[in-house]
């Protein structure tokens, strides 16, 4: 099909609808890159979210704060960093300091949110310098580079995660370690490990009053942004016909404003009818006992467009399953929506905690997939909490409710908001019991 062929409005709508759903994660990541292009130096957006120029890193120096709205479903188990990659501008150096026995992982994904580099505790990665390059880069790595990782797209994202126990003492220890984490253009490489006190970077004021995640995909801009991401992300094997079909419709729309409006209108409908429902975990994923669900191809989606878009909508930038397995929950054991008007328990049997080599946690999110502020400033429970109290039989009961469960139980209390909420189990560096599907979380039981 060529741009000179006639196209009916229903056909253009069909192609636009499919293209919008398919490209949603790529447009999301691409617009995150554009959002950071004018940031002057590494700092914090609104004082709570890492922000840096493209191909530069910014790190937090403690757990992320509840008013963060850049990425849904954050956790308070790790100290985060963030970097938007523009590998067409330059290859980048990424530093790995000596983490000792502390859990860490760098998530490094392309425009499709698929991982293209493996750096972390589970890989036995030694300290040193690593090089990230784009698909068209030709050159030799300078002396001192431990390994080169090549992306399939020019745009990507890097998110370091470093485990921290919930104590001031461990935060002090973490700050010393993360001072050696950095990322910068190849031209800045001199073979010397750069260090930075991430607690002293500037704050860029911004509005943090929104209740929901920053809107990274806007249907009204879809037709203009789609060619940019298609140029950045060449077709995967088998996608050639898809690309040809979309490009033909885009060419027709460029010469016919009415067709462009049709595409824009259909993008808005696809947002509401196809993408928006995937924000709720109960609407996608692999069904598990007790209404839990999961996905088993995070950051390696390939052509699984449903899961890739669903994850991008509900909790973008997940690790690969071998790095982290995620379990999602919107419902109690009876199939009713979780709501802070009720009280719940989650009881792990003796020897039934998530089997991990790294750490595990149970996090609570409000209906917008962010932390629900509470007096304890507690948003998750797990490995980081040394005060958890086991039952007499060795089991562990966590109390999920809006009010205190009573004296002697508050160490195991995960405060809930007055309204709908979701639960989310993270298993970092899971054992085979999890990756093989032989372990799933216990039921969320209404008291």
TrEMBL record:
Species name: Variovorax robiniae
Upper classification of the organism: Bacteria, Pseudomonadati, Pseudomonadota, Betaproteobacteria, Burkholderiales
Pfam families named in the record: DUF1214 (PF06742), DUF1254 (PF06863)
Gene3D superfamilies, sorted: Domain of unknown function DUF1214, C-terminal domain (2.60.120.600), Domain of unknown function DUF1254 (2.60.40.1610)
Residue ranges constituting the DUF1214 domain according to the UniProt record: 323-431
Name of protein: DUF1254 domain-containing protein
Domain DUF1254 positions: 54-185
